[in-house]
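Onboarding guide, step 5: your first structure request.
Type a short instruction followed by the sequence, for example:

Predict the 3D structure of this protein.
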Amino acid sequence: MLCRATKQAPFPIADSYWDRFPWKAVQSELIQNHMGNKPDHFPKAAIKITYDQKAVSVMFRVEDRYVRATATSHQDSVY
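The system replies with structure tokens like these:
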């Protein structure tokens, strides 16, 4: 699987919501690869990749009915 990275002018990452600026403008791609035989449970997953002169920024989105990850504050770690 190859993903297309979108070059941005300096990319502000103060906001990390999938459907809000600046991520809204970045095209997403479905992740459809797996190792070995396709598992019975294969949640929908997508990725957005962008870069500027200083960094590569990556955001994943997974829709899974069995797993729920939450954070109490913006940009908190999720375990």
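Each response can be followed by summary notes, for example: The mean pLDDT is 85.
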